[in-house]
Structure to design on (458 residues):
DNA sequence: ATTATCGATACGGTATACCAGATGCCAGAC
DNA sequence: GTCTGGCATCTGGTATACCGTATCGATAAT
């Protein structure tokens, strides 16, 4: 029998409603300006169900996942709310991020190809341009893209998954603060230094610079984001 | 109305069945010797339900959480299986662990009290004794306790949560390998050095030693655990 | 007019019913 | 004996019904 002839694609409908609901909800939370509005944001389970066109069960399971990831909080017989991290929690998250990104830089040096370095350079350039244009939103996104580039180039999907969770909140914070102050300039210099260390294949230096760079953000939030809490 | 008189305890039955099921299942997975048996371990949803005395819904929600954490894998209409991490995944996990523990050591130095250092010393002593007694299981547990001590002393519950997930697999691996080789002696020395750096309040040194110590475990698994996969 | 109480309602938690697909056994053809 | 096709059955995914409780408004008592 000729198997090659009938090589159909594996029918990738495998995604369950639960997975779809999860992606949809997470996407919605990512887009939403969490720290912008003052009142707590409540999610209506049944309303979401009819919006998604599925029953409560898959939506509830998706919500359970989001709750475990720390995006939402469920109060029995009260409602489901999008969580607003406290300042301390954000600092903690960014600190963990610093550790992970530092390790990512280390891994990057160990098994980085030149083309990956090229990609990073590209991300950096885009970042710089975005800053020059003073489009804050683009700047913020490009900033995150830069960080994600390092993480992804490290080849560790585990680090990637973990940092993605944090970036959602960091992006939200950025969107809320907007007042970047002098962090933008400093950031650019630090990013340049990081690329330099990566290009030089200096694992220790790269890790230290990445770590300190991100810890700098933690300090920034610690000092200037008193409006949280 | 005198409210103090009737101050009964807050009726800590607030835990939902879902949470109970989650704890129970996680506990079961932790205890089980994942890498010991050759065949895949399957979980029967309905059997578990009747064992726990609840319906499928809370059990399924608990399983969804465990699946997201990477402990189990659900194949539609096939079954639910306890995942056996590949060697690469384990190495990745341990690498992330190294980054997190390194950061924990750094935080430890920054805000460690002397009493916390005492606790760490105690953990180390227990660890040493366990090794001397050559009770492998105790040795392994004490080893993990040592690592957890640093993490908990860092004060970051986020790091604690993340590493806990990994320790379950690392413990399972330890149980399966058993042949400790010369890692035990080396471990002890490295632990001693770590405590020394922590006591000296040298953040950089402590972080580096912790990181390299755990990365050493990653290398060990990489080299000597070919039986995985 | 204010407050207390009761009930309607809404929400999350749980149980259960149903569905579609996968497995495995068994009968029947060769 | 081997292989194939179909049926019984099992399993996870989904929908839905039900329950207890918190919220909130209406009504009644003061």
């Amino acid at each position: 029998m000729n198997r090659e002839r009938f090589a159909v694609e594996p029918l990738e409908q495998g995604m369950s409603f639960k997975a779809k609901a999860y992606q949809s909800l997470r996407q919605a939370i990512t887009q939403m300006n969490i720290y912008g509005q003052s009142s707590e944001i409540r999610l209506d389970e049944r309303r979401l169900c009819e919006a998604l066109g599925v029953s409560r069960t898959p939506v509830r399971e998706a919500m359970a996942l989001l709750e475990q990831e720390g995006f939402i909080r469920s109060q029995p017989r009260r409602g489901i709310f999008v969580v607003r991290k406290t300042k301390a929690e954000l600092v903690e998250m960014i600190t963990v991020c610093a550790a992970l990104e530092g390790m990512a830089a280390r891994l990057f040096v160990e098994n980085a190809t030149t083309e990956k370095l090229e990609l990073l350079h590209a991300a950096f350039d885009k970042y710089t341009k975005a800053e020059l244009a003073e489009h804050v939103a683009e700047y913020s996104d490009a900033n995150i893209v830069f960080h994600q580039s390092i993480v992804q180039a490290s080849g560790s999907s585990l680090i990637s998954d973990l940092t993605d969770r944090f970036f959602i909140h960091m992006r939200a914070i950025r969107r809320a603060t907007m007042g970047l102050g002098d962090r933008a300039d400093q950031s650019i210099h630090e990013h340049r230094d990081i690329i330099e260390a990566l290009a030089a294949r200096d694992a220790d230096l790269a890790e230290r610079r990445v770590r300190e760079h991100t810890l700098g953000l933690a300090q920034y939030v610690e000092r200037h984001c008193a409006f949280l809490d």
